[in-house]
Amino acid sequence: MPQSLIPFPSTTHPIVPISRRWIAFSVIHKAGGPSWAVVDSSTYELHSEASAYLHYLLGSARSANTIRAYAQRLAAFFTWLGPARLDWTDGVPVVSRFIRELAVTALNAPEGNAEYREPRYRSGKTMNQYAAAITQFYMWAARSDLVSEKTAAGFYETRIAYGYSGDRLLPGQVLRSRAVRVKEIEEAPKLLNETGAESLLEAVSNHRDRFLVALMVETGVRIGEALGLRTEDLHLFHDSRAVGCVSVGPHIHVRRRQNPNAALSKSSNPRTVPVTEAVCTLYYLYLEDRIDRLAQDSNPMVFVNLYSRSHVGEALKYSNAVKMFYRSSGRAGLRVNPHMTRHTAATRWKRAGVPTRDVQALLGHRSPSSQLVYEHSSDQDLREAIERVRFRSSEPT
Ligand SMILES: [Zn+2]
């Protein structure tokens, strides 16, 4: 049992004067090594609760960087409490107010810089890191009987995720989310340039993922739409009349459905998107893998687990597809999230001179003002758009 320099908070701590400034401070534990505590900036007196919590984090094998970040966030919180004359044991109302004030408090300009600068503010992400650290502190405080279970429970909202089993909607996992959180503003979507898209396609490790990435990057379908595709939605023929479809040339149908992998097509209006011969070939290569690897296959979904050890043959999950994007793009020295492919497709069409109405039709965007022109996008227009910007690396080698 490592001996600690930090005493567990006693129940009889002295009345703390208001307006103390708390800082994160590097400490060395006798047995536990370097860590962080929260101390008074002038007297170096330990903040007992915050420091005891940080010591607990050290015991639960958190990295020094994590502990330092928690120390800084807790120090800021306890410093703010003083002048506000609030009691931290009140829980959520106090923490919510702290986070709100943090949002409107400008960051200090670098010292020695007299020049006027536009004030800078913390990002939503940073504020959520504060909220997360403080929420975790309260969870520990409840376990240590410093606040009531009821106070701690206020930090989490509970909801039940529903999922489909066959055609029946059933309650599933209980999800908990932090009650104190800040809406993060999304940055403008980033684009993949031509080389980026080529490198991503080359970095993908198997036929299924190569088909998925090529399909997304060439057609601009959302990842949820791609994962929600069923084999019956793929009309990869020159003539689909035999399957009751009059659209000319190979194409896919994007329809709104509730799918087993929780992929939900976002468009409420179904659309038809042409695909290139190269993408069709990638599909057939994937299909060969699927036939090889699955002894029995009755899954109607296009994208299924094939290369993993477990859940083989089941619908590919959204979270696993997203991980695949990060893994593959990481190998190519990029960081690509799935939505970038859609934005990239749209931008490439625009740059290649594809009319706005065709871009809208391809993306499935419904805009009231464009409903009339939308009708005039012919199959041929859409096909030309897709062919004009297709990738060479999506062609099988
Ligand atoms: Zn069709």
Automatic annotation (TrEMBL):
Keywords: DNA integration, DNA recombination, DNA-binding. Residues 187-387 form the Tyr recombinase domain. InterPro entries: CB, DNA_brk_join_enz, Integrase-like_cat_sf, Integrase_catalytic, Integrase_recombinase_N, Integrase_SAM-like_N, Tyrosine_recombinase_XerCD. Residues 44-142 form the Core-binding (CB) domain. It holds the Pfam family Phage_integrase. PANTHER family: INTEGRASE_RECOMBINASE PROTEIN MJ0367-RELATED, PHAGE INTEGRASE-RELATED. Belongs to the 'phage' integrase family. This is Site-specific integrase.
